[in-house]
Write a structure and sequence with these properties.
524 residues; 11% strand; elongated
Amino acid sequence: MDTNERGQEQNITLAKDAQINVMVNTTNSDDAEINLGNVFHSMKQKRRVYAWVIALCLLAGICAPLLMYQFSKPKLTVASVVTLNYDVMVPTVQNGVASFLAVPVTDLTAPDGTELDLSQILSSYVLNNALTGMNLSCPISVSQLRSNLNIQRVLNEDSRRAQELAAKMAEEKNAGVFSQAQSIELAYDSKFIVYLTNGFEDENGKSLLYLESDELRLLLNRVLDAYNDYLVLTYADMKLPEDSFSVIEPQQLDILESLELLRSAVDGLNDYCENKPESVRAYRSWKTGRTLDDWYQALQTNREVSVDYLYSYVYTNSIVKNRDTMLVSYRFQLRNAQSKLDTINKNIETVASILKNYKNDDIFVSMQESDSSKSTSTTTDYFNRLILEQATNYQKAAEMEVVIADLNDKIAKLDSSENSSAVLSAQEEILEEVENAIENSRQLYSQIKTHMEEVHESFQFTHYLSHTSAQGKERGFLAANMTPMLIGLAVGALAGCGIWFCSALIPELIQTNRPKKAEKEVAA
């Protein structure tokens, strides 16, 4: 075997052009080698040229935001803080009697006790009134104005702390306590913030319409004034006292009838003054220097000195012009009163029978930390309405019984009395005093009405809310572009350095690729 192998090796001959290449520890020929030393050396040689390139890139980075600022105007936003200025009625108990107390509003409660609807600021009624009469540089529609308005409610101190506590618990991953804190009902303060942003989309939605800064502030003020007018129109008690004195004609009516109408009119005016809140009653007129309480005291004096005295004198002595006519009138009134009382008594019986057979809903309440439960009853709204209706029926029945007793007394007095000569001679004097009492009451009514008209035109009634002047100052040219300029400066520096590095790297890549091309040519 060895002889044969040696024989074969001797038979091997080399061609004339044969070549043997030996490569020891060679790397992959496809991998390009880059000498960073050469790259940085090339960058150093080109530093003067690319210093100007970097400077130009920095300049371009600064100028680009300024150029964009010129073609696209910034959206200025103006804001105004709105504070509610009115009283709300709060239920209270004084001396065991349930009543209502007027207190300044502390949250977003409407004057009638319901929740204030802030969305009415965006209503067509308010926005149309705000735009009416405004001569703007760009025509703005109601829909365009509505889309750029924003309302932000303000949390009160307790709710704000609860919200901060919930956020802190969320960070600490306290899921159980966080879910309980989230269930807390948030309460808002009696103020809110309204924002108006410049830049209104046109009808096609392709471009924006911009108002001047002063126009934008004026427009926001007009919107809030229009909303205040809406509140006054909706909630303000603008009703003046009713004129019940003009229908009293003592020359055509009987003396007692005139005095009864006069007492009723005085009582109505008295109730009107009593039902006004303390803030209205304390308003002092700049014309007369008097308050509603002063006119109320004058009305009380007139009632006690003139009206009640005349009525008691005429009632006691049964001074009438035509006794038969008055008897017919009183008997007719008595029949109507008895009929009304019968109806009220039937209602009382009906409600009483319903309440007697009515059963409240039974519910089961589970005890905490126990499996036991107990049954309890809960009242429904229907049951509560029946109770209130029954109380009202009893009140009406008592009032009708008083009216019936008074009518019976009047009829009895007229039946037993006769118009003596002394009474007939005193009728003229009594009639003159009645006319004087009616005239004095009419003058008081006129003065109270004038006073209330002044109150309704005052700041108290015409301003249900106060708002700060719209604020939002447009920043200067450099201040508005400071952040974009810094970003452009950083981008320009990065771009210049990148170009400088690439200019030195590309020749090195080209030089590295040349041996690879030569090897490919030799192999071919």
